Amino acid sequence: MSLTFWKPGTAGPGSTLDRATESEGNVVQSAPNHSAYSIQAQRERLPIAKHREKLMYCVEMYGVTIVVGQTGCGKTTQLPQYLFECGWAADGHVIACTQPRRVAATSVAGRVASEIGCSLGEEVGYTIRFEDVSDKERTRIRYMTDGMLFRETLLDPLLSRYSVIMIDEAHERSLYTDLLLGVLKKHVNLLCSAIRRKRPSLRLIVSSATLDATSFLEYFTSGTSPEEATVVSLEGRMYPVEVAYLQEPTPDYVRKAAEVAWNINLEHGRGDILIFLTGREEIDRCLEELAELLPTLPRGASRLTLLALHAGLTTEEQLRVFEPAEQGFRKVIVATNIAEASVTIDGVKFVIDSGFVKIRTYNPTTFLASLSTVPVSLASATQRAGRAGRTSSGICYRLYPASTFASLSRTIPPEITRTDMTTPILQLKSLGIDDLMKFEWVSAPPAESVLRALEGLVSAGMISDNGRLTVVGEQVAECPVEVGVARMLFSSKEFKCGEEILTIAAMTSVQDIFVIPDGGAQGAIAELERRKFTAEEGDHLTLLNAYNAFKRYGQSSSWCKSHALSFRAMSRAVSIRSQLKKYMVRFGLPIESCEGDAKRLRQCLILHVHPTSVLFTRKARTGWVIFHELEETKKTQIRILTEIEPDWYVFKYSIANDDFHSFRIQLQCRLLDHGHKYQSRHNGATR
């Protein structure tokens, strides 16, 4: 089989992705591996190095510096180090750099720690949800997810420990990136003062490879002095990237990706392969197709190490992709868009881009979250190609024609426009932002999402009739879990089952505790092992059984393996439970056992069928269930469900319904009085 791609410079369509390196020719030369240089030499070779003085001048003179540079120029790793070297971390201050994903925060922190010459967690550390590898006294450069920094604003609205905050990969427009930018621009408190006005020494850097600099500049200068913000453009990439296209669209891009990867291994020299697909199912299928070909690998060809990278993996499993390939082996990493930004995988020279991405959208009317496969944006396609040029020159194979690339939309809609706003609005309220109409959104969420979120918070007793947080609402906002899970913890006091609810909350915060192979004898044996933990009432109590057994039998990896459980997932649940327990103690919530009373436990779950559910193959006896998550893939499914009695819910609903209807009318009147675009298009109470 031969590759049927157009190449730049031939008669077919090409790419000018890296104009700065066009003069180097269309043939990719063998660039020296960056590991051959000393760390200091590597830093000096990065394109950002020649802009060091300009960047430091802009940070000194402007409150907001918008940095735009191509993938691989060194923004994420070098800019925090420049700030550290120039004294911005003096007097106990910290330089923060946020990332949209946890794997980016952990991997980049490790890279920067090695460049500085310290152990991870000392001068350089990271913080992700339920995992803090940093030192309050010693850490001066702190990488973290944007959600973690946003949570810090709940405890310290002025973020007084930080001298510089760098919002990296802002083009991804994650939910908490948008919220952070809004809070950092103008934190609406009693004095309606901006953080920058309260703390003139605070500096903000907004960084991305594909950021629309003009729109962000306008955002940060509207209502303030034009001299408050500036843009710095970084030109050049470390290594050139050649781009090739398919001549015709492929009907099965998963199979084509495996085919192209196989041909690369046969026809090209050293260099690892990174494949972009949309989700776990496609990743597993691609890896299976490659695994089936392994016995036919000809003598002399590199052996293949097949690896997956997606959000469903544990941190340890994700970090495996960064380990160097063994002698005589080539890594093939099949990933979702988690690998698009700030994740430098040394040795990758070949990128295969399927041209698709899976995004989550939320319908506030039906409360249904959908996972939809859509074409990538121009920004994402450019980011993906750039992965091939991080540590050496490389090639990006796009599994679509060049005409398709030209027709792609510029960006994917921001996450804030397609997500449930319940938890974000509760957190904004906790910050003192009571009038959401005056909050300066980067992109405003849909009106119906805001209304439904407010209604839900009122019905749960977290927002009072006057629109302000209740005591319970303030406490729930501090918990590092979704509103529904946090409210469940607080209700455990009423039903006297805090011990068990704490465990269930921790177990629903991890993914895939059961390891069930698809089909075959092993799959059947694993399913029999899972049934040992199955509770007839449903998944929540099944998770409780699994956790209690894990603790009872010594938290052993060998025990987990023999009982079809993931040792890493179970260990993470133990860690999460211990952290959530601190919140329960802090809020005076009793941690008492229901002593096996499953009815009380199930009643507590009501506060708020997937194939993996124990109820998937049998009907709930009562016909009523509560569920942890609702999503739509190929069909609508609910995950983690438990049987309830119908009169438990009907009674609660009948009481709350009148309050719902009254509040919606009041809320709509207030919105209309403001003349704001948040005018509801839906009348009547939520059912």
TrEMBL record:
Outline the extent of the Helicase C-terminal domain. 259-432
Q: Which UniProt keywords are given for this protein, alphabetically ordered? A: ATP-binding, Helicase, Hydrolase, Nucleotide-binding
Q: Broadest EC class?
A: hydrolase
Q: Name one Pfam family in it.
A: OB_NTP_bind
Catalyses which reaction(s): ATP + H2O = ADP + phosphate + H(+)
* Entry annotated with the keyword ATP-binding: yes
Q: What is its EC number?
A: 3.6.4.13
Q: Which domain of life is it from?
A: Eukaryota
InterPro entries for this protein: DEAD-box_helicase_OB_fold, DNA/RNA_helicase_DEAH_CS, Helicase-assoc_dom, Helicase_ATP-bd, Helicase_C-like, P-loop_NTPase
Q: Where is this region: Disordered?
A: 1-20
Helicase ATP-binding domain location, by residue? 56-229
Q: Which Gene3D superfamilies match?
A: 1.20.120.1080, P-loop containing nucleotide triphosphate hydrolases (3.40.50.300)
Q: Is the ATP-binding keyword given for this protein?
A: yes
One GO cellular component term of this record is:
catalytic step 2 spliceosome
Q: Name one GO molecular function term.
A: hydrolase activity
Q: What family is reported?
A: Belongs to the DEAD box helicase family. DEAH subfamily.
Protein name listed in UniProt: RNA helicase
Species, as recorded: Serpula lacrymans var. lacrymans (strain S7.3) (Dry rot fungus)
